[in-house]
Design brief:
Keywords: Membrane, Transmembrane, Transmembrane helix. The chain has one domain. It starts with a helix and ends in a 9-residue tail after the last strand. The longest helix has 26 residues. Strands 1-2 form a two-stranded antiparallel sheet. It is built from seven helices and two strands, in the order αααααααββ. By secondary structure, the protein is mainly alpha-helical.
Length: 193
């Protein structure tokens, strides 16, 4: 119970973070783009940008509190530079294919890299030494736990929002037939305390 009270006390500090506002702008732009697509396809608005953004922020806050609680209860320890390395690897992977925009790929590569680098002594090259020490000191179980918790929260939030936020879509096959379906794009900001 103390853990929950401590998490709730930290929610007001969320509004002091500039990343919240950057994330909010990106979410608004993405939902606006989705609404333009809906109007183009169906000459009608299916979803509302303000409602989608508020829902995304509300569910994101819930996901962030639950994820933070799970991380704290499991004793997950990580430093901001560790997540910076993960995001750097993710940014590099995006250049190969957009599907690599997933922390599990970056965490797997970083885990393998850290394991291999621990087998060798620290090099004497001045510019490589700090990076080498950062990677070899990573706590890989915590990194894997973070990725697992993020995927669990993501799956839970998708399950909650899938019916409400999907957009109908018609796709033409290679043979020229039209097939109806739904496209599901969920954008969220999940704060971790």
């Amino acid at each position: 119970m103390e853990l929950l009270i401590e998490l709730i006390k930290k929610i007001p500090f969320l509004f002091l973070q500039p990343m919240l506002y950057i994330g909010l702008i990106l979410i608004i732009l993405q939902y606006r783009r989705q609404m333009i697509l809906e109007r183009t396809l169906f000459s009608s608005r299916i979803h509302s940008v303000p409602l989608e953004v508020l829902g995304s922020l509300g569910y994101g806050l819930i996901g962030g509190v639950v994820g933070s609680g799970l991380m704290m209860s499991l004793g997950v320890v990580f430093h901001p530079y560790e997540m910076g390395i993960v995001w750097l690897i993710t940014a590099i992977l995006i250049f190969f294919h957009i599907r690599f925009l997933c922390l599990s790929y970056a965490a797997g590569i970083l885990g393998l890299l850290a394991g291999i680098m621990r087998l060798f002594p620290t090099p004497e090259i001045v510019w490589l030494k700090p990076f080498w020490e950062m990677v070899t000191q990573l706590h890989i179980p915590s990194l894997i736990a973070i990725v697992a918790i993020l995927h669990l929260i993501e799956a839970f939030l998708i399950r909650l929002q899938a019916e409400k936020t999907s957009t109908p879509l018609f796709i033409e096959t290679k043979r020229g037939k039209l097939i109806g379906g739904n496209i599901f794009k969920l954008f969220g900001y999940y704060p971790y305390f």
